[in-house]
Amino acid sequence: MKLTTRQDIEAPLAQVWATVADFEAWERAAMRRGVEVERSDALRAPAAGMGWKARFRYRGKERRIEIGLTRLEAPHHLDMKIGSPVVEGDVVVELIEMAAKRTRMHITAELRPLSLGARLFLQSLRLARARIDRKFNSRAAQLAREIEARARRLSSV
Prior knowledge:
Helix content: 25-40%
CATH class: Alpha Beta
Structural class: alpha+beta
Mean pLDDT: 94
Distance between the termini: 43 Å
Low-confidence stretches: none
Strand content: 35-45%
Largest sheet: 7 strands, antiparallel
């Protein structure tokens, strides 16, 4: 299953990149939502090869996923691999500078089942495709608005 969205953000490319590539902030945000996050690499600076292991409850079961950063080309590309015992996938974030204070963010997420149960689950998501697309777009738009708000705060200081 492949999901894509495009969001225009009223902020300079550098500020958008700083937010998207702030991995420590993403870790803290996940932990605030009850996810146990653990780094699985020893890198000190952001680079391809960074990795995380995460545990969380979803639909009454404990889930485990591994996330690996496969490509990091500042300030335009960020690619990640996601893997679990039942699903694997890729997430690609691409940033394009539209103007001095306007950036376009493309997000593509693709999930592939590794088991029959996961295949059935993804098939049920396909049947609710319109709702899933709306939710995906809504969350990406929320992220875009948060980046814009952060950029406004930084420019007013």
